[in-house]
Structures are given as C-alpha cells and as structure tokens.
C-alpha cells in the first residue's frame, strides 16, 4: 500500500495542478500523511529550476499550516486519534523521548526534528499533546520547515539533476550538516554578544 501511495505521489509531479498537489501533500504530511513532500518538490524544481524558491515557499507555508492541524489533533484529540497516529507509525518510543525534554527545550526540539526526516507529524501532534506554547510552536515550525525545504531548493537550483541522487539518498546528512551550521551560528552570535 505504501509503495502505491509513493508512486501516485510521484506521478503528481507531471500533473498541471502539481503546485496545488505539493501544497496539499505538504499540509497533510504535517499531521497524518506518510509520504514527505520532498518526493514531489524535487522533480518539480528539476522541471523548472527558476521556480525553486517559490516551490520551497509553497512547501514551507503549507507544512506550517498543516502543523496547526497536527497540533490540534494532539491538543484536542490525543485520546481519540492522536496516540493512534503516533502508534501507527511506530513512533510511540520517540514520543516518550520528546515528552522528557519538551518543557525545557521544546522550541529546539521542534526546530531540530522539523529539519530531519523524522516524520514531522510526530513533532506537531506531540506539541499539541504537551500543550506547548502555540506562538513558539509556530515560530519554531517556520524556522525548521523553511530551513529544510529551502536547503533542498537551493541545492537543486544550484546543481540541478546531478545533485538529485545525493539529496534523495542523503537527505539526513544534508539536513544534519545544515543543522550544525545553524547551531554554530547561534553559538557564535551568543559568544560575540557576551564579549
């Protein structure tokens, strides 16, 4: 079933309403859908690299808006459906890990996990279930999702098709390096500010 869903998602890249499909997938992936929007984002950018940053913007905005649905599922419907979604993806152990550090480092968890291939729905549903501050959630989601999608867009815009396999196979490595650069930037800013 997952392979069929994967193939149908990829086939949307050639559809005349592909941008709307990208927005829809980015939205629902943040709460329930198992296929990441990168699967559609990559071929759309390669079809017209001039639209790379527009498409990354579509992905980011739709994903953040969809994150509010995930948050609402966790906040209002954890007992009814939220825990079932997390459990269906086999992520209950990760959910329990989040629970331990969320109060102190919730924004960082959202930023860090939102950039990685860990299903973003885990982050959004957990944020709602833990009743994390909604404004902080929105800001952290915007940072993490824009970093992820704009990084992919920038690499594809600059290098085109040759980078496709690298990005698809090593998305975790790419986002981890970007994440380390972002954290290093914050550390440098904090150090400069203190001295």
From TrEMBL:
Residues 56-155 form the VTT domain. Keywords: Membrane, Transmembrane, Transmembrane helix. Pfam families: VTT_dom. InterPro entries: DedA_domain, VTT_dom. The chain crosses the membrane at residues 53-78, 137-159, 171-192. One of its GO terms (cellular component) is plasma membrane. Signal peptide: none annotated. This is Membrane protein YqaA with SNARE-associated domain. It comes from Nitrospirillum amazonense.
């Amino acid at each position: 079933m997952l392979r069929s869903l994967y193939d149908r998602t990829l086939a949307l890249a050639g559809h005349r309403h592909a941008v709307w499909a990208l927005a829809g997938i980015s939205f629902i992936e943040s709460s329930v859908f198992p296929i990441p929007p990168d699967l559609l984002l990559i071929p759309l950018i390669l079809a017209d690299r001039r639209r790379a940053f527009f498409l990354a913007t579509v992905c980011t905005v739709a994903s953040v808006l969809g994150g509010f649905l995930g948050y609402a599922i966790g906040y209002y419907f954890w007992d009814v459906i939220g825990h079932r979604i997390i459990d269906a993806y086999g992520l209950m152990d990760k959910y329990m890990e989040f629970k331990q550090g969320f109060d102190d480092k919730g924004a960082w968890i959202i930023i860090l996990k939102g950039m990685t291939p860990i299903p973003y729905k885990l982050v959004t549903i957990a944020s709602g279930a833990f009743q994390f501050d909604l404004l902080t959630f929105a800001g952290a989601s915007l940072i993490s999702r824009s970093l992820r999608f704009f990084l992919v867009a920038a690499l594809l815009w600059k290098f085109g098709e040759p980078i496709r396999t690298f990005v698809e196979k090593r998305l975790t490595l790419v986002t981890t390096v970007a994440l380390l650069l972002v954290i290093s930037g914050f550390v440098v800013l904090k150090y400069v500010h203190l001295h």
